[in-house]
Amino acid sequence: MGIESVKVYDLRGQERDWAWLRDKYGRIELLDAGDPPKFALVRIDETKGPAVIKVRVIDQNGAPIARQPVINHWPDPKLPDLTAGGFRTLWHDRGLPQHTNPEGFTDFALGPGSFIRDKEAGGPHTIWIGSPSYPSDGVEGVGMLGGTNHMGPMSLTYVLITDPIVKPSPPPGSQTEILEELRAIRAVLEQLSGHLGAEVREQR
């Protein structure tokens, strides 16, 4: 699906892009799990103040998914070993799983090791959804920017997309295939955008 399918918003709720995100916060990467069905990263919101990574998990209708494991990895050999957990996606072999609450949220408290000190390296955290049934996108390079009030790309929204994207069938050799696929993906995400925007702002 690619970074084009992930919406980025600044503190004021203004839509930005990945170029803006990387210019401000350094190396941050989408770890793409491929086409749906999957847990898709659909939105990144800039936050400041609370030193937490907030993750929300919902279904295609915008309903929260409770008791869903969310995994937070950072460089620490003492983190739990995930290899025997039965998860479809392991972007790293170690990480801290936490379950979402009834509203579909979970928060990871951060400490001094969570700052982005080198923008070329990016933040130390990688976040994805732990599921035995569906693969999951991940996002790598999450953290708090040094010298700020815990500012960072730290509010993440994942959607469980169970309906496969129906790809168009352009004429052989047509260069519109990629654009048409992106339009189909965006149509799914647009159904959620207004709903998500209001609720994300309320959670800040």
| Proportion of helical residues | 10-25%
Q: Indicate the radius of gyration in whole angstroms.
A: 17 Å
Low-confidence stretches: none
Helix-strand sequence: EEHEEEEEEEEEEEH
**Based on CA inertia axes, which overall geometry fits?**
globular
Fraction of residues in β-strands: 25-35%
Strand pairing plus helix content: what structural class? alpha+beta
The major beta sheet can be summarized as: 6 strands, mixed
Query: Mean pLDDT, nearest integer?
Result: 90
Helical region count?
A: 2
Strand runs, count: 13
> How far apart lie the N and C ends?
28 Å
Neighbour order of strands in the largest sheet? 2-1-4-13-5-8
Offer a few descriptive terms:
globular, 204 residues, 2 helices, 17% helix, single chain, alpha+beta, 13 strands
Please render the helix and strand layout as text.
Blueprint: E1 7-9, E2 15-16, H1 18-25, E3 29-31, E4 38-47, E5 52-59, E6 69-73, E7 96-99, E8 105-109, E9 115-116, E10 125-129, E11 138-142, E12 144-145, E13 152-161, H2 177-203
Parallel strand pairs: 1-4, 5-13, 9-12
Antiparallel strand pairs: 1-2, 3-11, 4-13, 5-8, 6-7, 6-10, 10-11
